[in-house]
Amino acid sequence: MPPRQRLTPAERRAQLLAVGARLFAAHPYADVLMEEVAEQAGVSRALLYRHFPSKHALFAAVYQRAADQLLTETRLDPADTLVKQLIQGMDVHLDYFVANRNAVLAANRDLAGDPVIQTIMTNELDALRARLLAILPLADESAREAMSGVLKSWLVFVQVLCVDWLTHETCTRTQLRDVCIGAVLGALRPLLAEDPAPDWPPQGCGAVAATHTDRHPAPAESLHQAP
After folding, report:
1. How remote is the C-alpha of 172 from its chain's centroid?
2. Prediction pTM value
């Protein structure tokens, strides 16, 4: 066990979350032991349980932090085109999904029926939907309601597709991203007066993007979520 450092409660909690995030990313949920978290953090089990009374509580806190960071890093800058905003948002999330495969699969499979974890994911998806609605040119309230329903369904589609891809990887990461972007653009076009992305898909975008994106692995803590 590494020597214990004297930290403030907030610093200790952040340290434990970092250790927990690393272990949940590296191992399936069932294989992560609270004893190992305490050992790697250099604290007693009693101190760990003082901050997080169970493995579930630690995982929920790790996943909430990831969701918050994903929302922070998903900029959706109105100065960019819609396609650039979608690419940036998808890349941020895919960075996290790839680097934290086991944690994402745990949230969506091992803990699929857990109300705490599902609330974290639902809240993030709702926040993303609100941001997307804010950047789309909507004519009236009825158009907004229709668009909201489309975006809600699309975000769930992305979540399910990404979880399946993390398990099977039947296509490249760039292909997965472009499928998701193409799906939402196709769903949006009938509801908007003007095509939101007249140049999508660009010729040869899959082959060109794959040579760039798929050669750069995500960093271990790059920020999550699936939701």
Report:
1. 18
2. 0.83
